[in-house]
Design a protein that fits this description.
It is a single chain. By secondary structure, the chain is of the alpha/beta class. About 35% of the residues lie in helices and about 20% in strands. The protein is built from 16 helices and 19 strands. It has a seven-stranded mixed beta sheet with strand order 7-6-15-16-17-14-18, with helices on both faces. It has a five-stranded parallel beta sheet with strand order 9-2-1-13-19, covered by helices on one side. Strands 10-11-12 form a three-stranded antiparallel beta sheet. The longest helix is centred in the first third of the chain and has 23 residues. It is globular. The protein starts with 10 loop residues before the first strand and ends in an 11-residue tail after the last helix.
């Protein structure tokens, strides 16, 4: 049953990142007329791309994990991942650079078992035991938990769910869970890195998130040829086949209501668009605190100040006029101690000395993203959200990365840099209205898991939220799932409450 308002749309979706594209496609498939409003001139949110000097840079996500989520998504619309993209599995999955040199992490459990065994006798079997438990967490988490809207604790209260929840080890920290299996510092760092990048110290992250290790090792690290933005392109094609309309360069200035429910938006240019429901997929804090009338805000300033945000990032997009065969597609530089850097992110909120950093070199896999004989590099340093720049930090850290790369690679890359652009808190705030310049939404701490996250359903009836600051959490696959759940919730709302009659859309 369609619920067209007289402006011709049932639902307005704000933001065309992964969550927005998924929301729009599912709502459209269910028979609703959907328009997506995007403030930038191209679609994709944080996964946009840009071209410069013959290089193509992905702006944000660079890891393709949890391939089953994408498979299910495209299957839901009668397609397949391999029809939409040319996906390749990376082997090695990534390289970890320690003080004493690089360690390649091979694709698949069997070869990784051998690596672990060579570092710590007995660790191979322990890795298998760890992954067997992580697989249970992945299956339960992905099949029973992530697709719940998490409105309240009751959703999780059925007996089977409670039994399952105990198997999820919500109340054991990731750090304790890893140490139950391994003692060697290198192995612990390899196990703990996925949670560090998703937003909390391993000792504050529930062991549930070992499902990330399972995803990484057993389901694989992949790459869509052409870059991560290919996922966006594929999702846009799906949405358009479903009949979704897109409108770029449309910044939303306010969410409108008729006193009882959401009924549209006002754009920055003063024009209004009306609909029977709205789904906001941008930064939750920004939407609630700046686009909603105060009476409809569920959370106040103090609430947000007390949230643990995941890290922000200092990013560099770098073009070199030489190849760097020593680097793999993904490289983690853990050549300095982990503890002090984590502390600057989560405890002291300060700029780190000797930070860990990550280098992605997609041109090692995909020659199309760099001119011939050149290399496309993406550097990332995780940083505390809310840091102020005094000036000079970007140059200093760039220099530091380059010095450390020279130490590891035995040559200086600085004379070969032909393009560089940096991106950090200020840009995250400007480009994505991101609270405190966060890069990945809320940290995955226990008090911010499941129904403890900001609610998907707004206090304002007819408005729902999707994206990394609500259920199920940060990262690309969770954002996609979030869009699916928000679409389902919006569909239920429209069924219950029907369409709203509006005067025709007007500028003014």
């Amino acid at each position: 049953m369609n619920h067209h308002s007289s402006s011709g749309h049932d639902v307005l979706v704000l933001g065309a990142g992964f969550a927005g594209l998924a929301t729009a496609s599912y709502l459209s498939k269910a028979g609703h007329k959907v328009k997506v409003l995007e403030r930038h001139d191209r679609l994709g949110g944080r996964a946009r791309k840009f071209e410069a000097d013959g290089f193509t840079f992905d702006m944000g996500p660079s890891w393709y994990w949890m391939p089953d989520v994408f498979e299910r998504y495209f299957a839901d619309f009668g397609s397949e991942v391999n029809k939409e993209m040319n996906l390749v599995r990376l082997d090695p999955s990534y390289t970890v650079w320690f003080e004493d040199g690089p360690l390649e992490i091979p694709a698949g459990l069997d070869p990784l078992t051998e690596v672990f065994e060579s570092i710590e006798p007995g660790a191979g079997d322990k890795l298998r035991a760890f992954m067997a438990e992580a697989e249970v967490k992945y299956d339960i988490g992905m099949n029973k938990f992530v697709n719940r809207p998490a409105h309240n604790a009751l959703e999780f209260a059925e007996w089977q769910t409670l039994v399952d929840a105990t198997r999820l080890s919500l109340f054991t920290s990731f750090s304790a869970f890893a140490r139950k299996h391994f003692t060697h510092p290198k192995l612990l760092q390899i196990m703990e890195f996925p949670v560090l990048f998703l937003g909390a110290k391993p000792e504050d992250t529930p062991a549930l998130y070992s499902l990330m290790n399972y995803a990484d090792t057993c389901l694989g690290t992949w790459y869509p040829m052409g870059g991560m933005n290919e996922i966006v392109q594929a999702m846009v094609r799906v949405a358009e086949r479903m009949g979704v309309e897109f409108q770029c360069n449309s910044e939303v200035a306010a969410i409108l209501d008729d006193g009882r429910r959401a009924n549209g938006v006002r754009l920055a240019d003063g024009s209004e668009l009306h609909a029977s429901a709205v789904v906001a997929t941008g930064d939750y804090h920004h939407v609630e605190q700046t686009l909603l009338a105060p009476k409809w805000r569920r959370y106040d300033k103090a609430y947000w100040e007390n949230r643990t945000m995941s890290p922000s990032s200092l990013l560099y997009y770098v073009g070199l006029d030489t190849r760097v065969p020593e680097l793999q597609h993904h490289n983690l530089f853990f050549d300095t101690p982990f503890g002090p850097h984590a502390q600057t992110i989560y405890d002291s909120t300060s700029w780190p000395d000797d930070p860990l950093f990550y280098v992605s070199a997609p041109s090692r896999t995909d020659e199309s993203v760099a001119p011939e004989g050149c290399e496309n590099l993406f550097f990332l340093i995780p940083l505390a959200p809310g840091l102020d720049e005094q000036g000079g930090e970007r140059d200093r850290y760039f220099e530091e990365i380059m010095v450390r790369l020279e130490r590891h690679l035995g040559r200086d890359l600085r004379p070969h840099v032909v393009y560089t652009r940096s991106f950090a808190h200020k840009e995250f705030e400007q480009e994505y209205s991101s609270f405190k310049g966060n890069a990945y939404g809320l940290a995955n701490t226990l008090r911010q898991t499941a129904f403890w996250k900001p609610k998907m359903r707004s206090k304002l009836p007819g408005l729902h939220f999707a994206g990394q600051l609500t259920t199920p959490g940060p990262g690309v696959p969770p954002s996609l799932i979030s869009g699916e759940v928000a679409a389902e919730e919006t569909g239920k709302f429209l069924k219950r409450h029907g369409a709203v009659e509006h005067a025709t859309t007007q500028a003014g």
